[in-house]
Design goal:
The chain has helices at 32-39, 82-95, 106-117, 122-142, 181-193, 208-212; strands at residues 3-10, 17-27, 45-47, 54-56, 61-65, 70-74, 99-103, 155-160, 163-170, 173-179. With 216 residues, it is α+β, with helices and mostly antiparallel strands. α4 (122-142) crosses α5 (181-193). The chain binds zinc ion (ZN).
């Protein structure tokens, strides 16, 4: 079951107030179209009827895929209800063997769903991203005109025959980069040897910041 509400928001361009639909909680088991709207980001976009501007709607949304035993909670605001988080964590724990993730923005949520769909481990993906950032920084040290990469904007895209591809904005456009499957397999090996690289219980925000607190 999905929980849908309405909210009053102001257009970022013309400032006019409009009522939009927001999704507090979505269950993708019985709604494949809803899942697609998460993956293409359209669930979080609204067009202003007055000026036509495309606006990003910032709201809390609990993404639930019961078949995959996976929940990702999009919490774009610093302040969250600890009581609500505790209640949902306990509920998921009672259901058993759930993966719970916290996401700070829509890009992170889409990435987590893609990783889940590809059957990959998100900690191993963060290690791959750490490796990629290191290589891009080395390249940047040699070629000063190559642009810097914001770790928050480097995201897993998909897995195919050539390996794992990632995207990041560079010079005003999205750039794609592919790494071999061996990098990912090495990351899995590192995780199996380091218990500290397993996320805690509850809704953990597994990202570059989380990883940096665990590897030196
Ligand atoms: Zn407007």
């Amino acid at each position: 079951m999905s929980i849908v509400k309405t909210a009053l928001v102001n257009c970022s361009r013309c400032g006019k107030e409009h009522e939009i639909t927001i999704y507090k909680s979505i269950n993708v088991a019985d709604d494949a179209a809803m899942k697609q709207r998460v993956l293409d980001g359209s669930l979080f976009l609204w067009n202003c009827p007055d000026c036509g501007a495309a606006n990003l709607a910032r709201y809390e949304c609990l993404y639930h895929d019961p078949d995959a035993r996976f929940m990702a909670w999009l919490l774009p605001f610093e302040r969250v209800s600890e009581a609500e988080m505790q209640a949902i964590s306990l509920h998921a724990k009672a259901l058993g063997a759930y993966t719970l993730r916290r996401c700070a923005d829509v890009g992170e949520l889409i990435e987590k769903v893609r990783i889940q769909d590809a059957g990959l481990d998100d900690v191993a993906i963060e290690i791959c991203k750490f490796v990629i950032r290191g290589e891009l920084e080395q390249k940047r040290a040699k070629e000063s005109d190559s642009p810097a990469v914001d770790p928050k904007l480097l995201h897993f895209h998909r897995q195919d025959r050539d390996g794992l591809s990632f995207t990041f904005p560079s010079g005003g456009q999205m750039t794609s980069l592919t790494i071999g499957r061996n990098v990912y397999d090495d990351a899995l090996g590192i995780i199996s040897r380091n218990p500290s690289l397993r996320p805690e219980e509850g809704f953990v925000q597994v990202d570059s910041v989380w990883l940096s607190t665990r590897i030196r």
